[in-house]
Amino acid sequence: MKRIAVVEDDALVREELSEILRRANYEVYEICEFEKAGERLLELSPDLVLLDLNLPGAGGFEICRILKQAGSMPVFVLTSRDQMQDELRALKLGADEYLTKPCRAERLLARLENILKRYEGRRNLLEGEGFLLDRQTYTLYIDDTSVILPKNQGKLLEVFLTRRDQLITKEELCLAVWGTTEFIDENALQVNLTRLKKTMAVVGMRQRIETVRGEGYRLGLQQQACAYVSRPQP
Amino acid sequence: MKRIAVVEDDALVREELSEILRRANYEVYEICEFEKAGERLLELSPDLVLLDLNLPGAGGFEICRILKQAGSMPVFVLTSRDQMQDELRALKLGADEYLTKPCRAERLLARLENILKRYEGRRNLLEGEGFLLDRQTYTLYIDDTSVILPKNQGKLLEVFLTRRDQLITKEELCLAVWGTTEFIDENALQVNLTRLKKTMAVVGMRQRIETVRGEGYRLGLQQQACAYVSRPQP
DNA sequence: AAAACACTTACAGCTGATGAAAGAAACTGA
DNA sequence: TCAGTTTCTTTCATCAGCTGTAAGTGTTTT
Known about the structure:
Helix content of chain A is 40%, strand content 22%. By secondary structure, chain A is of the alpha/beta class.
């Protein structure tokens, strides 16, 4: 049974929505602490979030942003704000649907089901810039092609993706790949990093693994090559 | 550059849509033979289909059905029919979006982009009942888990999925797996079929491979076990 | 019961992932 | 510039898992 979280401040509307969803055989979670909604939702990890925009506190946009940045949980915006601006903003933030209240139950349910269907098998997909990575099989999707990464390369890429733009130490990488900090074989890690780099280049990823000498590694976007950089003379 | 096919009989509207899309940097294909639209679209295989419902001939619903049955090409319905019935029907058929004309260009483009984003990496995904199969890597998605099938098992399952409910001869299966009808090693095929069956059972697929003695094989849904079936006495 | 067909299991060969080792390259500070 | 340190590359043997072969078991048909 699919689990749906409802984020809506009007108690009456919330109740009505929950009722509709329950009748349609969904497991419903009502979120009322709007300040911490983002965290709570990430922790709860429902199959879909039904989100109002006019909320006390941070507001629906912020929640949407948080959810969409973190992963690929579908967000269904249902609001009374019918400004085109709001719709565009929500969609740009990655919302999967935007409907205005009042809304017939049939339409709501049909669109909801649609989105859930679209997300089938996506729960374990990590989003990168321009690609997707399956956390279980380490299948990498990029530009309409897919490649299976060897397990070690997959684990490394996974770490880099879940802690984007952060510096990651060798110890942490070893821990992620071999599950232990005890015997850190720097060389084995090194070889696997080299292999991952090569794979990334071959499949055409724009990201590169940057080395921070003495500290660790970081995943960053490839700088555009510049023809006017001065070079040391030979 | 993403390729979009526009299926719309009103030449004026068609031109306008095309213009909007071209400005947004899409490659646009206009489809005018509405009778053969289904085939044409499958052959063209654009990244998205923008579909009107009021078409001469078979009509938009039929085209939608054909596209959605064949694979996972996103279908964006844009129509002047604003009956709730139509919307529900289109969505049930698997349409990814349903908007009514007239529609502001910004909204159209925002929703369109949204869908394209959702379909990233999905182009090679074959839909089965309750699971998905990646044609390139033979990664199988089922119930929020994913498994990589060995190449031969993947090829076999692929054949069964692309010719659903049809009987498939051993020759055809051999052709699909080894690319030749010359040396049909019945035994090798047999072994691989056994392995696929086992995998399917292990991951919990509801489909089973049925044997048609002397003819070939067919993929069918597992019958629900019935407690009241009479059994031969021991 | 015999023949034809379908299925299962065990095993050996092969491919591709992995880590060890050795050495090259790059960076650092004097 | 140079020595010391760190990072990177390449090669190679090992190992796991996929594959086809072979032999034997089960099932259906006549």
